[in-house]
Amino acid sequence: MVPFLAGQRKQDTHLFTYRPGACKVYLIMMKPATAFLESFLPWLREQGEVSWVKTIEPRSPEYGPLPEDLHEPLKAALASRGIASLYAHQAECYRLIREGRNVVVVTPTASGKTLCYNLPVVQALLEDPAARALYLFPTKALSQDQQAELNEIALGGDLPVRIQTYDGDTPSSLRTVARTSGRIVISNPDMLHAGILPNHAKWITFFSGLKYVVIDEMHSYRGVFGSHVGNVIRRLKRIAAFYGARPTFILCSATIANPAELAEALVEEPVALVNRSGAGGGSKTVVFYNPPVVDPVQGLRRSSATESERIALELLRKGVKTILFARSRLKVELIASYMAQSLANPNNENNRIAVSPYRSGLLPSERRAIEKGLRDGTINGVVSTNALELGIDIGGLDAAVMAGYPGSTASFWQQAGRAGRRGTSSVAVFVATSSPLDQYFARHPEYFFAQSPEQARVDLDNPFIFVDHMKCAAFELPFAEGAGFGEGAGFGEGAGFSQGASIAEGSAGRAELAAEALGLLEEEGIVRFTGGRWYWSADGYPSEKISLRSATADNIVIVDVTGGGGRVIGEMDRPSAKELIFDNAVYMHLGVQYIVKKLDIANHVCHVERREVDYWTDSVVKTDIEVLTEDERSAPGGGRAPAGDAQSSASLPSWAVGDVLVRSQAEKFKKLRFHTHENIGYGEIYLPPEEMQTRAFMLIFPEESAAGAFLAALEPAKAAAALVGAARLLKALAPAFILCDPRDIGVSERVRDPHFGMPAIYLYDQYPGGTGLAEALSKNIAGLLEAASGRIGGCACAAGCPSCIGADLVDEGGSAAPGRQASQGYKALVADLLGRCASR
Amino acid sequence: MPGLKGRISRLKSLGLVKASELGAAPVEPAASAEPASPEAAPRRERTSPQERGHFLPGWERIGPHVYRRTADTNFGLGGSQPMVFHPAYFEHHPLPAQSQASRPPDPGLPLDGLSFFDLETTGLSGGTGTIAFLAAIGYFEGADFLVTQVFVDDFPGEPRFLEALAEALAQRPYVVTYNGAAFDMPLLRTRCIMNAVPLPELAHTDALKAARRLWRRTLGSCALQAMEAAVLGEQRIGDIPGFMIPGLWLEYSASAASESETFESMGKIADHNALDVVSLARLFLRIERIMAQPELRWAADKVCAPRLAAELMALGREAEGLSILEASWAEGDQAALLLLARLSRRRRDFDAYERAVLALDDCSLLGLIERAKLFEHVRRDAASALLYAELAASLLSEGGGEIGGLNPSHRGEALEALARRIGRLKRKLARGEGNKG
Fold first, then answer.
1. Is ipTM beyond 0.85?
2. pTM over 0.80, yes/no
3. Mutate to test the interface with A, among B12, B16, B20 (most CBs of A within 10 A)
4. SS3 label, residue A77
């Protein structure tokens, strides 16, 4: 059945010879990691291509002594947990934080990260009874875990440090306690934004003593969420300054290319970087598995989801506790239900193997139950989105299977790190999809072992986000005339409160932008300038309407109306709802299928009904773009500042960065049969279009450039095909250079662009107003074009495949489907075009 | 970052200013939007508007933007009204497990130590962006009830406004509010913190809590105006609806000095505010009177008898509590009967217990359940108990949920408890136990 490509497999095996600096590469047979690997790897190699295997050697730890100034009770508390010395990076963090410096610490999973901040914080709280600390975690579940751990340190040694969680689940009786006597308050950015800051006067004791702010999982604060959180931090600093406090920031991050840069962008202050881990680790075998090719001409491989499912089943049947990571909520539900079907066996209670899906959109109680099941062993296997990637305690797992690249190397290592948390040997299997990105990595394992190449970006001055937080900030404290917001604002001549004034005076950070925003809010009638200050002058509570996590505040509630009931089963943001839960769509929740009866956008509700069908649905979205501004344009030839070899660079395409208006509409949907994924019909979607203003990176092809001349010489249909293919590949590979999800970037292309009067490709930010992706693309475009050219050149397919420029172009066109001959031309066209764009 | 300046203005020109609402309604096709230049809106010189310098007749200007008046009201103490109040009447006391010896009578505190206090604010959702712009403090001077009000006509006057307020509150040691525990007092504290105005130490009583205990079951809404209508027998005419107040003041504070209509609405708000503290004081005295003479007052004042009885018993006034329960039973109050039954059983007065249980409606769920308990534990007649329990279970499973005031969400629990009882009774019967009859 599966074509056996002997040469290819052998060739892939030779990749074992790759030896990057720090980690040694072994042939599996030489050093089996654990007993189950001995049988598992040969089995895996019978299934498809094992394109590389690396065993990361156990690392021996580097220690430093306990700090001398450590309080005796704290020493005793550490001793009771068996800690007599620190890892080198923990000692370094302690020293820097005690010097009063902001610190960002980058360490792998299970490297004693929490002690990096707990130790200096608890020490400081013991020294000064007025001192307070705020711990921010990106999710509620994480803060619950964190409190448990902190209690162990603090209470284990009877330390007089009260630790209090303050989130949406905190009962009101405990809220007062947290405000007045919590020394360490554990919360999340959403609660800080909507609950704490708008009521800061109730927190006077806390803010007056605020000495440390710990921001864990910093890498998750990128893009939209990060841009919002950066503004929440601006508000936090403004309020702290009002009460005379100026906290030190301690940030923790998984590996990204620019941790210090991201930390400084978020807190807008200098931050010292600690990135050398002194912790040891158990051995881990990382396997890159490429599913077998089923159609060598079109380069089609077997589905990564199906293969992951089979691999996970094999592991589970061998008694290996396994987590399977899938990319979407839908995939999670599909795979979990397929696995449950495969395991179903009434005679032996499914071999006593229980598999559960885990994703956002489940109710908190459902999630807690699954986490508990994993910890106590009643659930052996879990299929999850990246929701379980963060540090939620689910106990020790032995294997992690990743159905496709999780979007970043940070996520890759966090997911891989889910196996073997207790320092035991473990295996992580990465199952490549046919996407260009996955196939690019299949050939470039060094990508994972060298310094992480992706940049995390935020744009705190995204006008939408900025204006939203100006509203919240004005609600919290009036703005003085000419006062700024962010970047040094609020730290001028001391704090307002201690001097009896009702505003935080400050230097003019972002003063101009703040003034512009206040002028706008004044016209909306929600702030008023009087007596030299800007006052919030509206009824209402602004932060309530502003979500930090999604593009729009109005979520759609999904209601199960089966049998006349009305049970809420989930929530979804509006733009996603238009593409996922339109009328007649199939919605999956905890393995149960629902059909959408009615998506009622005006009332924010979607009625679904349980129904067993043998297909799922996928929408087809059309987009249209209009250029609003060009804020930056490359020098002719694409260079930022043409230097060096001007002659060769002059032939490269140009680019611009600016604002665009994107109009998108889901018009129809496909019905795809389960398992085979064959298209069994279409349906219409009748929904109004989504409009958004955003930032775009625009690649343009003047005739003077080599690529432009090439396109100009083609007939329009062929030029269009070349642009489509190039755009797809650029979008697909962008996440290798910028920390983002491919879904964060939209693409569109035109042969004769009405704005530029020449061919153009748009890569735009999917969040209104942009989150820095367009700017980041302008800095990485040369590398991206080269990678794209390299990918298409190195792809073994004949005429374009999902692993390079996509093959569905061929069958999606409907009646006018070009034959194989034409599509062969298609791949060559794109390769030619990209070859003329790359500088080498 | 290049291109930053003007981004917000461009948004405005596109009509996409409200990020939180972006895309909520599809924008008109952009073709109609003129590509407005960022300079389209030239920066204005910002100057604070002139202070008005005056307010309604009868109000005295006591500082920039701040005004005060004190007025007598047509409300006052009648000759029979004692000049004391009892803080204990306004606190919740859990019913003690054992009956208590009577407490020494509470002599009460002088009424003229009370400030009846209410705020009008720029919003109802709280948070530091909500300010108070008007306050009323009502107090007794002899038999007269006076109201002092302080008003601020714009934001910059807030510190002086709060000082005047703190000064007025400091005159008396007690503050009485209606919903002040959740709203007025925290808001006042927040404003004082934000403006660095010291607030005097005050003892606070929220009369809403007492009102809820006495009337929630019988009246439903315990909003002040609902209490006025149902308990005090008053009707406001031409009163301004509370939800309009924030908007009216925001409009007034932002409007030019000459507009007279906004003056009229401010006058109405001031009257509303004064009326609120008058009603609060009257309701407060009514609660005092009910608690002083509960047997005489409870029926006429539509008080929930079982709740009142429970409060009295908690205060050690058992005889009064029982007499109210008996009187309420006489009017067919099943809840009073039920409480009476439970209290009697707790005091091991099994005759009274039996009397109360047998008086319960034997077609109601609770009546059946209580009978099952009586027959099982007191009369030791398992067969009859089983009959009642099975009747109760069938009533419940047939969907007679609202019978006997059972909360529908407790139906499952109740069914389970019944099932356990039935199982136990059947076992007892099988063993031949507990069958005296």
1. no
2. no
3. B20
4. helix
